[in-house]
Amino acid sequence: MVFSTPTFLFYFLALTLLIYYLVPRKFRNVVILCASLFFYYWGERVYVVIMFLSTAIDYTHGLLVERCKKRDNDRGARMAVASSIVFNLALLFFFKYWDFIAASLQSVGLNFMPVLGIHLPIGISFYTFQTMSYTIDVYRGDARAQRSILNFGTFVTLFPQLIAGPIIKYKDLGDQIDQRDCTVDKFASGVQMFMIGLGKKLLIANNVGMLWDSYKTMALADLTVAGAWLGVLAFTFQIYFDFSGYSDMAVGLGRMLGFEFLPNFNYPYISKSITEFWRRWHISLSTWFREYLYIPLGGNRCSKGRWMFNLFVVWAATGIWHGASWNYLIWGLYFFALLMVEKFFLLDALKKAPALVGHVYTMFFVLVSWAIFGIEDASRLGGYLKVMFGLGGAPLADGTLGYYFISYLPILALAALSSTPLGAKLYHRLPQRAAQVTGAAAIIAGLLVCTAYLVDGTYNPFLYFRF
C-alpha cells in the first residue's frame, strides 16, 4: 500500500487514526501492530510471515544477549549477537542477492547456483537493518532488551517507516515504543509534515519523473548531449523529492501517532562538497553504516591503509545495499573515490573557495552519480555516459530538447527552488498567527490539489520500494 493513494489516505489512515485515539492508551500499540501487519500484508501477502520470523528471532536474541551480560558471559552475548547478524544478513542475501549472484556466475559458465526467480519483499533492506541493530545496541548497553514481544513487534513493523525508511534504530525509539505523548500540537505538526511530503512526491517527483523516463528509454542514437544532461537533471530531482517526500510523510505519520523520528534529509543539493552532501543525504543510512560497520572496522583510529580499506568496505556496502546490480556497486565505489580525493587533496581548497565553486563542483559529480544509479543495464549506462560527455559524435541539441525543456521548465524551476531552505526560512519569519493561517490554508489547498492529482493521474511510482 503506497502512501500517495486514496486507499491509504481516506480509508486505511483515517480508520487507523480513529481507532488509535478511541482505544485506551495501553491498547494503542496493539492497534499500531495490527494496522502495520495489515499494511504489509496488503502489498506482500505471504511474505508477512518473514515479519513474524524476523520479530521472533531478534526478540529472543535481545533477551539472550541481556541474560548473558547479566551473568558476565561476554562470549555468550557475542555469540548471540553474531547469530542475530547472520540470520538477518542471510535473510537479506537470499531474497535480494541470490539471483543476482547466480546469474553473474552463470554468465561466466559457473552453474552451481540456480536462478530461483525470487520476489524481493518490499522494504526488506530497511527492516532487516533495524532489527539487526537492536541486538547490537542491547550488547553495547545503548538499549535495554524489550520484554514485551508486542511492543517489539510494534517497533519492527511500524507502518510509517516500514517499507522505505528512514532506518530507525531501537535505541532512538525504544522509550517511545513503551510510552509517548500524543498532543494536539504534535498531531498538527505531523499533518503539516505529511502534506509537505505528499506534495513533494505527487506534484514534483512524479512530474519530473516522466521527463526522466522519456530520456531513460530513448534510443541512444536519438540522444543529444544537452538532452542526456536534462534527463539526468530530471532524475536528480525525482529521486530527491520521491525519497525525501516519503521520509517527510513517514515523519509526519509518526508524529500523528506520537512518535518523533529523526530527519532523513537536510537539503543535500545545497552542499559545497561531496563530504557535505553525504552528511545531508539519506542521513539514517549513512549514520547506520558509520555506527555498525565503519566504527567496528576501526574507523579512522588506525593506519592510513586500514582506514582507506574501512571506507572502501563501507561504500561498497552502501552501493550494493541499494540493489542487486553492478551499477549500484559502481555508484558506491564512485563516491568512495570522490571522497578519497577530497580528503587527501580538495577539501581544504573547497572550504576556502567561493561557495558557488563548491556548489557547481558538487552538483556536477552528483548528476553523474545519478546517471550511474538510474541506469541498471551496463551497455545502456556506458552509452548514456558517452553521450553526456560528447563522445561518439552525438549532437549537442535538437528540437526534441527544446520541446522538453520548455514543457518542463516550470516544474524544474519549482524543483530547484524547493531543493533549498528558502521557503522554510520565509515561512518561519512569518508572525505566529500568520504562520498558523498560512499553514492551515496550505494544508487544505495541498490536500485538494493532491487528491485531484491522485484521482486523475496514473504515474505514481515509489523509487525506494525496490531497495
Identify the quaternary structure here: single chain
> First CA to last CA: what distance?
16 Å
Domains counted in the coordinates: how many?
A: 2
> Which H/E pattern describes the elements?
HHHHHHHHHHHHHHHHHH
Broad shape: globular
The largest sheet is: none
- Percent of residues in helices comes to over 70%
- Total helices: the number is 18
Number of strands: 0
How would you state the average pLDDT, rounded?
A: 90
Low-confidence stretches: none
What is the strand content?
Answer: under 5%
Radius of gyration equals 23 Å
- Structural class determined from secondary elements: mainly alpha
Transmembrane segments: 6-23, 30-57, 77-98, 110-129, 149-168, 220-241, 356-375, 401-422, 434-455
Family: Belongs to the membrane-bound acyltransferase family.
Subcellular location: Cell membrane
Pfam families: MBOAT
Textual characterization of the structure:
The protein is mainly alpha-helical. The protein has two domains: 6-180, no CATH class; 186-466, no CATH class. 73% of the residues lie in helices and 0% in strands. The protein has 18 helices and no strands. It has helices at residues 6-22, 28-44, 48-70, 74-107, 124-140, 149-157, 170-178, 184-216, 225-256, 274-280, 283-297, 304-321, 326-352, 355-374, 378-388, 399-418, 422-428, 432-456. α1 (6-22) packs antiparallel against α2. The mean pLDDT is 90.
